[in-house]
């Protein structure tokens, strides 16, 4: 159970002053996890990304142009525009050193008269400029009387926004949220906290939201470091607990005798690469031993992870047990089923597909056969997690493209049988620091080598203005039998807009190429997605217009051209994943990065790296470097996925400390029963790692 002290923080943000239905929706769009409602906590964790310094209080004569100043002056003259004119309303204000004009466009006259009565002393904050030789301030940020001045923060926090939401609304909600911060028992080790000179959790939040100097909002300040550490500690502690639980449940030996795996290998139209063989040796050793396997297979796109998964699963079946392969999307689950089904069945394995879309009767029969042990290998989506799914004897769970799944889902699968071995396969070549973050202590097999005979992909950057030439070129290519992916960009992380963009692009391309153009996006019904995908696979459509649903794992070896529209909007890892969809057969492939000019510095660097290399590991390192240097912090895209306050690129040294801390905590107080243990439970809840609490005896 969640400690009751935390309740105020888990209340809906709509209970905060100034947050009504409309603002609430905007907050949901900005802050809430998908399909959830913003909580008070989410508001508190929305940290300012910068600040406005209002401490400068010069006399008019000494005020600098183009920087924020707060000027004390008296209103001496109102100059309303003539009736029906669009000219601005101006107000002359003076101090003993000079005067300046305040300029208001399309303003309500009464409002101005009330705000700036003649003869009244006001504090006016904003940027000064010179216009026709006269000092002016257009739309001051603040016009305050003496009372208002007292409340003016010397340094004002600036938050990431979404359209329709204003700084003031966020500031107000944050104030309300800060007022609800309970007194929480400290969970940090006291000596460590003292040594670092870190404030308490609630003081840290107070100080980040109430900066006294512009530096106070920077990510390397003590308050920010403390909050980042809290999040990293919660993450590491949860991982340690999960790992310990898995170890405690123990493992079982699944020795294979090679009767299925040898057959499958013999049927392959190629021989395994050295890297695949090494990974399989490592996996088989784990499976054969009675320790529980928790292994990550890291292999760049196209490195051939799928066959490794099949051979690992076949090994477990040889030991008389079952295996499950879980994919992040319906499309991928189906693709795996089709590919592996043929290979596996020839070898004598019984395979089944289980997704959220199966018809009731079909599903019932699959479930019954699974429970009876009449299915050896089941392939599916997260539908496999559901409670109704029971196995006769699950020996191995393979999770493909893991980064989309959370710790709790991994747990759910691990609980599906006694001592389930877990194999996680990820296509993103994650740098070492991130492996630690996401997976804790996992054993890692790396597929560095790619299958032989892959021609390098010709990657070109082309400005969008030349889209006509690109369309001509694609016309010639499909005339020669090529197949083309055309990926449309993310628009504001808004799926509806993505879909609109893709639909529109498909319409345009159809004007040239008629029904050779297919379309696939995330909002389509499952069956329609399959139809679009398989029409492209069979070559009935030659061009597949897609949103990023094709990013992960889709395998159509005949496709040789990948066009990415608005490439500047994609991250490096994403571009690399997308490009990995081509260059899979023997034929020469091309990747066209269509960009909107002018390119920003970071976008240009990304595109250059893409042209430079196909090595996913190098790309991942460069990605980390660019993210560290480039983008504004505090905005969601640039933070570390799965983290809200910690930025791995910046806080990597804290991660290592948090990991040691978590191990020590676990060694001393595995059930979190001490006073610090209770405080740490609260920490796990605060950062959404409470699935780990359920592993405790008194959870
Ligand atoms: P990923 O690692 O991205 O999941 P896949 O498993 O989808 O890659 O494999 C990509 C392609 O490479 C598939 O078409 C697969 O059949 C092929 N492949 C896998 N291993 C080999 C190999 N050793 N030699 C040649 N082709 C291979
Ligand atoms: Mg794959």
Short description:
With 699 residues, the chain is of the alpha/beta class. The chain contains 24 helices and 22 strands. The structure holds adenosine-5'-diphosphate and magnesium ion.
Give an overview in words.
The protein is an alpha/beta fold and 699 residues long. The protein folds into 4 domains: 110 residues, no CATH class; 98 residues, OB fold (Dihydrolipoamide Acetyltransferase, E2P) (Beta Barrel), CATH 2.40.50.140; 195 residues, 3-Layer(aba) Sandwich (Rossmann fold), CATH 3.40.50; 157 residues, Rossmann fold (3-Layer(aba) Sandwich). The protein contains 24 helices and 22 strands. The chain has a 7-stranded mixed sheet. A 7-stranded parallel sheet has the order 12-13-11-14-15-10-16, sandwiched between helices. Helix 8 crosses helix 9, helix 10 runs antiparallel to helix 12 and helix 11 packs parallel to helix 12. The longest helix is centred in the middle third of the chain and has 27 residues. It is globular, with a radius of gyration of 30 Å. It starts with 6 loop residues before the first helix and ends in a 13-residue tail after the last helix. About 2% of the residues have low confidence. Bound molecules: adenosine-5'-diphosphate and magnesium ion.
- The CATH topology of the largest domain, please? Rossmann fold
Bound molecules: adenosine-5'-diphosphate, magnesium ion
What general form does the structure show?
globular
Give the number of helices.
24
CATH H level of the largest domain: which superfamily?
P-loop containing nucleotide triphosphate hydrolases
What low-confidence regions span 5 or more consecutive residues with pLDDT below 50?
628-639
* Number of beta-strand segments: 22
Largest sheet features: 7 strands, mixed
Strand order of the largest sheet: 6-7-4-3-2-5-8
| SS-derived structural category | alpha/beta
Q: Kindly provide the radius of gyration, computed on alpha-carbon positions and rounded to a whole number of angstroms.
A: 30 Å
Compute the average pLDDT: 87
Share of helix, binned: 40-55%
* CATH A-level architecture of the largest domain: 3-Layer(aba) Sandwich
- Count of individual domains: 4
Beta fraction: 15-25%
CATH class of the largest domain: Alpha Beta
End-to-end distance, in Å?
7 Å
């Amino acid at each position: 159970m969640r400690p009751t002290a935390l309740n105020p923080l888990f209340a809906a943000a709509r209970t905060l002053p100034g947050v009504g239905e409309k603002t609430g929706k905007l907050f949901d769009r900005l802050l809430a996890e998908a399909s959830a409602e913003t909580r008070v906590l989410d508001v508190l964790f929305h940290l300012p990304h910068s600040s406005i310094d209002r401490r400068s209080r010069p006399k008019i004569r000494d005020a600098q142009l183009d920087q924020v100043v707060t000027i004390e002056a008296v209103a001496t003259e109102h100059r309303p525009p003539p009736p029906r004119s669009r000219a601005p309303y101006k107000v002359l204000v003076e101090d003993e050193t000079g005067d300046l004009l305040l300029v208001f466009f399309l303003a309500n006259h009464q409002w101005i008269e009330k705000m700036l009565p003649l003869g009244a002393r006001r504090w006016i904050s904003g940027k000064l400029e010179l216009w026709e030789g006269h000092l002016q301030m257009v739309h001051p940020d603040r016009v305050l009387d003496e009372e208002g001045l007292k409340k003016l923060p010397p340094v004002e926090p600036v938050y990431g926004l979404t359209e329709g939401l204003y700084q003031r609304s966020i500031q107000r909600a944050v104030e309300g949220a800060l007022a609800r911060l309970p007194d929480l028992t400290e969970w940090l080790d006291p000596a460590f906290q003292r040594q670092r000179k870190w404030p308490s959790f609630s003081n840290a939040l107070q100080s980040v939201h109430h900066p006294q100097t512009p530096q106070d909002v920077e990510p390397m300040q003590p308050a920010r470091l403390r909050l980042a550490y809290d999040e990293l500690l919660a993450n590491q502690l949860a991982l340690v607990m999960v790992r310990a639980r898995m170890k405690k449940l123990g493992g079982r030996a699944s020795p294979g005798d090679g009767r299925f795996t040898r057959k499958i290998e013999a049927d392959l139209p190629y021989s395994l690469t050295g890297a695949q063989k090494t990974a399989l040796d490592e996996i088989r050793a784990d499976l054969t031993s009675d320790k529980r396997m928790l292994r990550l297979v890291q292999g760049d796109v196209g490195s051939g992870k799928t066959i490794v998964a099949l051979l690992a699963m076949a090994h477990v079946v040889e030991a008389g047990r079952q295996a499950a392969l879980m994919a992040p999307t319906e499309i991928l689950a189906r693709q795996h089923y089709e590919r592996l089904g043929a290979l596996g069945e020839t070898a004598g394995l019984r395979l089944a597909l289980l997704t959220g879309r199966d018809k009731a009767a079909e599903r019932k029969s699959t479930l019954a056969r699974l429970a009876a042990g009449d299915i050896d290998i089941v392939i599916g989506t997260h539908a496999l997690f559901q409670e109704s799914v029971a196995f006769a004897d699950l020996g191995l769970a393979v999770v493909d493209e893991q980064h989309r799944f959370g710790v709790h889902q991994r747990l759910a699968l691990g609980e599906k049988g006694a001592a389930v071995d877990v194999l996680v396969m990820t296509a993103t070549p994650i740098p070492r620091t991130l492996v630690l973050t996401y997976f804790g202590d996992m054993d890692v097999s790396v597929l560095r080598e790619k299958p032989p005979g892959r021609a390098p992909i010709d990657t070109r950057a082309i400005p969008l203005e030349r889209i006509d030439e690109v369309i001509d070129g694609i016309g010639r290519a499909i005339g020669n039998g090529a197949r083309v992916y055309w990926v449309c960009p993310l628009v504001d992380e808004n799926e509806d807009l993505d879909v609109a963009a893709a639909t529109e692009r498909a319409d345009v391309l159809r004007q040239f190429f008629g029904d050779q153009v297919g379309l696939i996006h995330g909002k389509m019904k499952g069956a329609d997605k399959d139809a679009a995908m398989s029409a492209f696979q069979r070559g009935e459509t030659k061009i597949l217009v897609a949103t990023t649903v094709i990013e992960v794992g889709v395998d159509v070896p005949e496709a040789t051209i990948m066009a990415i529209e608005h490439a500047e909007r994609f991250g490096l890892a994403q571009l690399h994943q997308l490009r990995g969809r081509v260059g899979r057969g023997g034929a020469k492939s091309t990747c066209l990065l269509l960009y909107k000019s002018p390119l920003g510095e970071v976008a240009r660097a990304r595109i250059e790296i893409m042209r430079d290399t196909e090595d996913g590991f190098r790309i991942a390192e460069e990605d980390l470097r660019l993210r560290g240097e480039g983008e504004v912090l505090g905005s969601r895209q640039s933070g570390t996925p799965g983290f809200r306050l910690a930025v791995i690129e910046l806080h990597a040294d804290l991660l290592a400390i948090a990991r040691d801390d978590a191990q020590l905590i676990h060694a001393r107080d595995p059930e979190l029963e001490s006073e610090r243990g209770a405080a740490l439970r609260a920490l796990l809840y605060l950062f959404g790692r409470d699935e780990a609490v359920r592993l405790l005896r008194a959870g």
